[in-house]
Amino acid sequence: MVQNHLSRIAAPNSWSLKRKTNKWIARPMPGPHSLNHSFTLSFLLNNILEYAKTAKEVRKILNDGDVLIDNIVRKESKFPVGLMDVIEIPKLKEFYRITYNNKGKFSLISIKKDEAKLKLLKIIRKSAVKGGKLQLTFHDGRNILLDKFNGKIGDSVLFDFDKKNINKILNLEKGSLVYLSGGSHIGKLGKIKNVIKSKDLQKPKVTVDIDGNEYITLAEYIFVLGKDKPEINLEAKK
Question: What is the pTM of this model?
């Protein structure tokens, strides 16, 4: 049981759940997001959207192919979903993007159908592979091979599911609009005032303007949204 389930008390703080009801809750299976940065489809349908009350109802919804994650039908109730993933429920004509609220809990933002084909991906690794190509690894575990790429680790890209390619590179630089995915200001929007070069083994940091106040935070908490305006909508919260 321990391998397939989590104690509610030990569940990640990003999950909005009642800790003192049932003892166990389903553990996300290995996948695109780590345990601490994801939740299951069953949790989505039971606790967030409240479209199912039992495991049987969750299985029925998923087996009917009624839920798409990043434009792919997912039928495994323990499939992990996380930050910036796009949820589609075609029968209900509902489309959502996963974010964090200001308390660090996972939250859904309702988006339009045409926005559901786009996703922001953060580059966490860039490496050369055989054949002279570059392999980009993103925050959701996605890997893309390219002949050349001008972006760097920490940048974001706007990915198009329909065309299966990168539409735009969003650089981690002064003046960029950003979303905070960690730290004490998680869930807030800001603007980069300065990128602080790391010394020795220190983690890279940035100075961010949030609501007129400047804060220093780790670059790993920064998710670049765009330059003059965000490339995706992060305002219409459910």
Answer: 0.86
